[in-house]
Amino acid sequence: MIDTLLSKSTEEEIVLSKSNWWKTACINAALRGTNFIAPQTVYIALYISNPTDADTGQEVSGGGYARRAVTFGAPVIADRRAAAASAVDVYFPIATADWGLVTHIGIRTAATGGNLMYHGAVTNPRTVQTNDSLRFMAGRINIDEG
Question: In a 3-state reduction of DSSP, which class is residue 47?
């Protein structure tokens, strides 16, 4: 059973990058007056390939997989950078079939479909097999706006 994709060491943090959709939405809202409605909830999605800024990756599917809601703490400003980290542990359901080698995660605007906001590589990719479960510990998923 996989207890977690990440150990407690700081080297295991996942730092996420903005997607093209999110970069465009931010600039349009801030500089062009384009209305933007923030999602009430954001979700962690697991990928077996790099989602890329263009949202082209292969998300895990089947075997009991479902995206999970994630909550982030308030941003902290330091050295001209703003950062926010996941505030609570996030648990995925027990796999009822193999999910494959999980190499990346994404933060998405909906439990299904929606838009990719952020994405990043998992430091230690894991193959998820039947009866495995995954947990992302609080503070290990980080958004860094530089």
Answer: strand
